[in-house]
Amino acid sequence: MADASALDTFPKLMRHNAQVRGGRPAMREKSLGIWQTWTWSEAQEEVKAFAMGLRALGIKRGDKVLIVGDNRPKLYWTMVTAQAIGAVPVPVYQDSVAKEMAYVVDHAGARVAVVEDQEQVDKLLEIRDDVPSLETIIYQDDRGLRHYTQPFLKNYPAVLDAGRAVLAKEPGSYDREVDAAKGADDSIMLYTSGTTGKPKGVVLTFDNVLSMAKAGVEFEKLTDKEEVLAYLPMAWVGDHVFSFGQSYVAGFCVSCPESGATVMHDLRELGPTYFFAPPRIFENLLTSVTIRMQDASRFKQRWFKYFLDLAKRVGEKILNGEAVSPGDRIKYRLGEFFVYGPLKNVLGFTRIRLAYTAGEAIGPEIFQFYRSLGINLKQLYGSTEASVFVTIQPNGEIRADTVGKAIPGVELKLADDGEVLFRSPGVFKEYFKNPEATADTKTADGWVHTGDAGMMTSEGHLRIIDRAKDVGKLNDGSLFAPKFLENKLKFYPNIKEAVAFGHQRDYVTAFINLDQEAMGSWAERNNVSYASYQELAGNPRVREIIEGHIREVNADLAKDPQMAPTQIRRFLILHKELDADDGELTRTRKVRRSTILERYEPLITALYDGSDQVHIETQVTFEDGREGVLKADLEIVDLSQNQSRKEAA
Amino acid sequence: MTETAAPATAEANPMAPPERRFGAPMLTVDSISLSFGGVKALTNISFDILEHEIRAIIGPNGAGKTSMLNVINGFYHPQEGTITYKGNVRSAMRPHMAAAQGIARTFQNVALFKGMSTLDNIMTGRILKMHNVRAPETGVWGLDHVLSFGAGALDFVTQCLYWGPNEKEEIRQRTYCEEIIDFLEIQDIRKTPVGRLPYGLQKRVELARALAMEPELLLLDEPMAGMNVEEKEDMSRFILDVNDEFGMTIALIEHDMGVVMDISDRVVVLDYGRKLADGTPDEVRSDQGVIDAYLGVAH
Amino acid sequence: MNLRSLTIGIGSGLLAIPIVGFLLQGLSQLDPAIFFAWDFYAEVVVKGLLQGVMYALVALGFVLIFKASSIFNFAQGAMVLFAALAMVGFMEWGVHWIPAFLLAGVVMVLVAFLIEKVVLRPMVNQPHIILFMATIGIFFVLDGVGQTIWGSNVKALDIGISRQPIVAFQGSLLPNGMYLDPTELVAAVVGALMVALLAVLFQYTKVGRALRAVADDHQAALSVGIPLKTIWAIVWSVAGIVALVAGVMWGSSLGVQFSLSLIALKALPVLILGGFTSIPGAIIGGLIVGAGEQVGEVFLGPLVGGAIQDWFAYMLAMLFLLFRPQGLFGEKIIERV
C-alpha cells in the first residue's frame, strides 16, 4: 500500500480497481429477468464518458448533482462521475414527495439532476419553477418520456455520447480532473430525514467516508469476493458506505435488484455474502417462514421444530466457537442438511458471511433465531454524522442487547446525562449552510453529540437505551430509560405496547397493553372466554401471565447494577388499546407520552399511592367516529416482594 | 448494455406531440345479428374500428357487449352480417385463426392457465410467433391439419436433434416476454403460479399474454372489472401506454362508464343487443338515449 | 416436482424395501419355512423393479392424456392390445418386426386422428365425466375391431429377444449372480428412454407448452391461437405410440391376447401412487408397485396363503388415497374457496 495516499478519492479508487481487477465484476443489475454484469473496466469507461458529458453541460467543481431513483448501477456511477469532475453528489430518497425534493434541490443549489425515470422527472418538473438553480435533468429510462420535449431534459445515452466525443478529442482530460481532487474535498452530501424541522445536509469528505469504509473492511476482513445486494435507499448513509464506499475500497461487486418488489427473489438468486437489513426485515422474513411452516404437513412441522430447538440450544455456541458435545454437533450437521440449509436457501442467506442490523432494537428471539442457523448476524451503531460506523459487535462477542465496541479509530464517551458522544476520522465536516446546527452537534474538539442515551456494559460494550431527551432520573438519582424498558417488555408477543413511568418518582411503574391476537389465541387454547379487550385485560389469569413476563424482565434488569434500580415495581393492564385515533399513539404507532400522562393521570396517581384498585373513565373515539366513555375498575399488581430478591442480587 | 426499449412492433414514433393519428378502418362490422335458439343477442349492429384508436363498447349488463367481442374473435358465428378485417370480408372465423391474423383478447372472467407461472402464461402468447408451429389457415379439417400436425411433430424432432438453434429461439422469445413483464411491472410475480395471484394481477397477466401475441387488434373484455380505484388507474395507464407506445388498436368493453370515457377515442353504446349511440365520449355522454338507458345504473 | 422431492421419493422407496426385508429376516427366524437371504432378496427386488417398469409403460399413456385433457382414458388398455395386435398382424404378413413396428405406429396415429374427429371434437366443452364415458366406448370399439380383424387367439410376438435368462451381478456379494429376464431388461431401457423423451417433449418444446396450455384452459388456449384439435390429435398419437411400445413389451413376454387390455387395471394403482399428472411419477409409482408386490409375494405370500400380487398394489393405492391423494408427484390439489 505504498501509494495509499494516491488513492484518496473514489474516482482514483475506481481507476485503481479498473487496473488491478479490470476483468472482475463491479456491478450487476437484473434487467429483463437476467443478471447483467459490468466489470470494473467497463464501469470505468462509462464513468469517463459520463463525466465528460456532465462537464460539457457546464457542471464545474463544487457544483451539486442531485441523484434520485432506485438502486441502479448508472446512478451509483453518477456519484463517482460527479466526484470525478469535482462536483458533489446529493442522493435523495426516491419516495420523497415533490415538496420535500424542492427543499433539498433549493437548499443544496443543485444544478443538474440525474434521475431514474418518468416518475422522478414528473416530480422535478412540478417543482421546477420554485428551484431556479436546477438547469438540467438527465433521465435514464425513457419509458413514457417520448413526448416530453422540454430542452433541459436530456437522455442519459445522449449525454454519454457527448462525453465520448470530448474524450476522443482530449483523451487525458478525465485523468486530469480526477487528479485534481484530494481527500479533504467534499465527497457527498446526505440529507438526514430529520423527524423534527427541515432536513439537514450532512457534508462528508472523501477522508471521512474512506476512513470508515476502510475501517469496516479491515475490521470484518472483507475481500473483493464479497457479494452485496444494494436495495436500501441510495440516500441513506449505510447504503452509501456498504454498497459504494466499501465496494470501491475492497473491490467487491454490488448488485441491484430488478425492482423494489423483487428484492426477496433477487436476494435468493444472488446469495449475498455481506448483507445489511433493518430489524423489521429480519422480523418479516421470520414471520413468513413461520406462516409457511404452519401450512406444512405435521411431520414436517415436527421435524422443523426439533431441529430449530436444537439450533436454539447449540447453534449460537457453535457459531461463537464454544464447546458443544459431539452428539449435538453431529445432530446440528444433520439439521444443517435437512432444515437450516434449505431454510437459508429460501431466504437467500446460504452464502452469508456477515450480516448487520441496526437502526432500532431487534428482538432477542429474532436475533438469536438467525444466529442459531449459523448466520453471523451482528448489530452495529452508527449515524450519518459518523460516516456510519461507531460501534460493531466483534465476532464471538455478540449480545442481543448491546451494539458492540467502538471500532478501531473511534473514541466513545458518555456525558453525565448518559448521552453518547464519539470522535473519529469519519466525523462529518458540517451541516451544509447551517453553522448553528453544526456547532450544536459537533464540539470544537471534534466530539459529536448523538442524542442517544447509552451505557457501557462490564464487557465494554455500548448499549443504547433511549433517546437522550427521553431519559429521566429516579428520585435516588439512577438513570431511568423508559424506551429501554418498554422495548424489553414489547419483545414478549403477548405485550403489544408498554408505557413506563419513573422520572422524578421513587420507583418505576408501567402500563401494559395486551396483544389481542396473541393473548386471544392463548384464550382460545385455554378455554377462556371474553367479550371484549377490556374483559380480556381484566382476566386474573391474563394478569398472571403478564406478571410472569414482568418478573422475568425484572430478573434480567437485576443482573445489571446500573439497571437494577429501574425494575418495575407496580403495573396495571390498561382497559383499552392505545389508539392513534385517540391521540395516544402517533400515526407511526409511537407512544405519545404527554397525552398519556394527561389522559390517565388518575391511573398514574394510583400506581404511586399504594392502592390496589382504581376506577377510570376515559373518553374514546370508536371506529365509526362516535365518541363515548369507557368505564373500568383496574387491578394494580404490586411486585414489591421482588424487592428482596433484587437486594440480594 | 442494451437500453430497455419497448418491444418494437411499430417503429418508435419521433418526438411527436401526443396527438393521435388514426388510420383507415381496421375492422368493420356490418349489420351483424346473432341469436341463440331464437333469443336475439345482437340485432343489426354496424360500426368500425380505426387503426391506432381506442374504441370502447359500453352498455348496461346484458347489452350484448361480450357477444359482440365473441363475434369479432370468432367464438360466436353471427347468423347475419359480415365482418371486414384488414380488407378481408368474412362472416365468421375460428378463434385460433383470429389469433393467427393478429387479434388477441382478454376475458371478462380471466382465462389464464392457472397452473402455469406468469412467465409461462406469457410465453404461450408467443406460440404462434415461434417458427415451425403454424395454425391451420382454413376451418376445413383436412390437409391443413395434417400439415400443422406434421409441423408440430417435425418441431419436436428438430428440438430433440438440434438443441442449439432452438435454445436461441427460446431466448429470443423469452426476451420479448421479459420486455412485456418489464412494461407491465410484474417482475416480482414472474415465477408465481397465476392461480395464486389476486384478481387484479391476473388481469394484468392476461393483458401481458395478449401483448405477447404482438396483435394488431387487442380486444379487452372488462379489463377493469372487480378492481379497486388504484388498480383501475394502473390498468388505464397501461392501456393508454400500449396504444401510444406500440401503436396498437384497442377495442374494449366496460360497463363502468367513468374510466372508459376518459381513455377512449370513440364509443359505441349497446343496449338490449341494439346500437344506441356511436361517437366521441362527449357526443355519447350528451345523447338522450344513452342517458335514459343508463339512468338508474349510472356509476 | 423438483430434484429434491424426486430424491426423497426414490430414497424412501429404496429404504422401505430393505426395511420390509429386514423385518422378514426377523420373521424367518421364527419360521424356518420362509427362506431369506440377501442375494435372493436382491434378485426378487430387481425382478420386481423390472416388472415395475412394465407397469409404468402402460401408466405413461394414461398420464399423457390426463395431463393434456384431464380425461382418464379408459381405453388405454385397449390401445395397448390394439397396437400389439396390429404389429403382430403385420408380422404375420411376413414383415420384419422393425417395419412392422413403424407401420403399427402409423396405425396408432390414424386411430388417434379418428378418435379426435369422431369422438372428441363433438364433445368440446363437455364435462370431463362425459368424455370419460366416451373413452369407455372407445375401449369396446377398439377391442371389438381388433379382435374382428386379427382374431382372438393368443399370438406370440417375437422381436428377437432371447428367452434365456441372463446371469448378472455375479461377484463376491452374490456368488450365484442374479437371473434376469432379457425382455424385462429391454423394457427397462426402453421405459427410461420413453420417460426422458416425453419429459423433454412436455417441458421444453413449444408443442409441450401448447399441450400444457390446452390441458389448463381450452378457451384461453384457443384465444392465443393454439389449434385445439391438432393438439389433441398429437396427444392421442403420442399416447398411441406409448401404447404400442407397452404392447410390444408385454406382448413379447405374455403373448398377445385379450388379457393385455386388462393390464391397464394394474396401471391404476401406479397412477395413484405416482400422481396422474407426473411422467416421472408414473415410473417411480411403477417401480414401487413392482418391487413391493414381488417382495410381498415371495416373502409374505406363504404366510397368508399367496396371491398377494393380486391385491398388494390396490392396498397400497388405497393407503395413498387416504394420506396423499395427489400421489407422490402429482400437482397438489388446492381447493378454491
Describe the structure.
The complex is a heterotrimer of chains A (649), B (299) and C (337). With 649 residues, chain A is an alpha/beta fold. Chain A contains 22 helices and 28 strands. Chain B is α/β, with parallel strands linked by helices. In chain B, the strands form two sheets. Chain B has a six-stranded mixed beta sheet, with helices on both faces. Chain B has a four-stranded antiparallel beta sheet with strand order 2-1-4-5, covered by helices on one side. In chain B, helix 3 packs parallel to helix 6. The longest helix of chain B has 21 residues. Chain C is an all-alpha fold. Helix content of chain C is 73%, strand content 2%. A two-stranded antiparallel sheet of chain C has the order 1-2. In chain C, helix 10 packs parallel to helix 12. The interface between B and C is large, with 40 and 31 residues.
Topology:
The complex is a heterotrimer of chains A (649), B (299) and C (337).
Chain A: H1 10-20, E1 25-31, E2 34-39, H2 40-56, E3 64-68, H3 73-84, E4 88-92, H4 98-108, E5 112-115, H5 118-127, E6 136-139, E7 153-155, H6 156-169, H7 173-179, E8 186-192, E9 200-205, H8 206-220, E10 227-229, H9 237-250, E11 253-256, H10 263-270, E12 274-276, H11 279-295, H12 298-320, H13 326-347, E13 354-357, H14 364-372, E14 377-383, E15 388-392, E16 405-406, E17 411-414, E18 419-423, E19 430-431, H15 435-441, E20 448-456, E21 462-467, E22 472-473, E23 479-480, H16 482-490, E24 495-501, E25 508-514, H17 516-525, H18 533-538, H19 540-558, E26 568-573, H20 593-599, H21 601-609, E27 613-621, E28 627-638, H22 642-648
Parallel strand pairs in A: 1-11, 3-4, 3-5, 5-6, 6-7, 10-11, 12-13, 13-14, 25-26
Antiparallel strand pairs in A: 1-2, 8-9, 9-19, 14-15, 15-16, 17-18, 18-20, 20-21, 22-23, 24-25, 26-28, 27-28
Chain B: E1 25-36, E2 39-50, E3 54-58, H1 65-73, E4 80-85, E5 88-90, H2 95-100, E6 103-105, H3 118-124, H4 143-161, H5 163-183, H6 199-212, E7 217-221, H7 229-245, E8 249-254, H8 257-263, E9 266-271, E10 274-279, H9 281-285, H10 288-294
Parallel strand pairs in B: 3-8, 3-9, 6-7, 7-8
Antiparallel strand pairs in B: 1-2, 1-4, 4-5, 9-10
Helix pairs in contact in B: 3-6, 5-6
Chain C: H1 3-30, H2 38-69, H3 76-92, H4 97-120, H5 128-150, E1 166-168, E2 178-180, H6 182-204, H7 206-216, H8 218-223, H9 228-254, H10 263-274, H11 279-304, H12 308-323
Antiparallel strand pairs in C: 1-2
Helix pairs in contact in C: 1-11, 2-6, 2-7, 2-9, 2-10, 2-11, 3-4, 3-5, 3-9, 4-9, 6-7, 6-9, 7-9, 10-11, 10-12, 11-12
